[in-house]
Amino acid sequence: MLGLGTLRRVAREVREDVSAVHDRDPSARGVSSLEVLVAWPGVHALLAHRVAGTLRRAHVPFLPRAIATGSRAWTGIEIHPCAEIAEGLFIDHGMGVVIGETAKVGRNVTMYHGATLGGTGFATGKRHPTVGDNVTIGSGAKLLGPITVGNGAKIGANSVVITDVPENATVVGNPGHPVRVDGRKPEGPDADWIHLPDPVADAIRDLSGRLSAMERRLAELGAAEDPAPATPVRELRAVRGQNPAGG
After folding, report:
1. Domains plus CATH for the chain?
2. pLDDT tens, residue by residue, 138-159
3. CB-based burial of residue 129 (10 Å sphere; 0-12 exposed, 13-18 middle, 19+ buried)?
4. Distances from the Cα of 61 to the Cαs of 48, 142, 151, 218, 241, in angstroms?
């Protein structure tokens, strides 16, 4: 039921949300808490979600969805009223952030714009990610399905994560691959997103090096023999199949 205890809890959560902005957003240095509360869309979206979630738990019809819809139109951030979000979430810029119905977000999480905690398929039940404490999710990252992201993990920008992430791991790529584990760099919410390791690029670089070595070896062997006849080049042309719609 709604009461003074509920209002105190919401007020405490909002204070922690504002404090997270001061702690993790360089543009908030020297800015008053009132200005953060008025001008930061991430704080607006969280405040609307706190209210919508409280009304939903009180079994108030219609209003939770209406508040969530209005918040999405106002901030560009979509948070389902049923999502569970702990204190200290910082949504930087926020445009395009989506947090699904059964998602759970731990304490002191940092999310950049375009991040998604989404589901896969149309199954009922738990179908969105569970994010631990002190997790950083880079801009454009997609976390899909009922996966678990361990405490202290970092998800690189534009990564697509479809499997569980260990604690203190850094994940990059599509699909996401853990590349740093057990607290090794980068550390903290201000992770160096520009210089994250890229296992796919490393594999391509290794293959390119091996190919270059093979070409040099073939050139050395070919110098002692007659050159092979040139292989005829076959011109490529577009081929159209049947229209699947008929006609």
Report:
1. 4-199 (2.160.10.10)
2. 999 999 999 999 999 999 999 9
3. buried
4. 16, 31, 35, 74, 53
- Token readout for 123 is 């199954």
Confidence of residue 97 (pLDDT cuts 50, 70, 90): very high
What is the chain's mean pLDDT, rounded? 83
Record the pTM: 0.73
Please choose, from the candidates 7, 8, 11, 17, the residue with its C-alpha nearest in 3D space to the C-alpha of residue 46. 17
pLDDT of residue 234: 63
E strands in 84-223? 84-85, 90-92, 98-99, 104-105, 110-112, 116-118, 130-131, 136-137, 142-144, 148-149, 154-155, 160-161, 170-172, 177-180
Structure tokens at 109: 């999480």
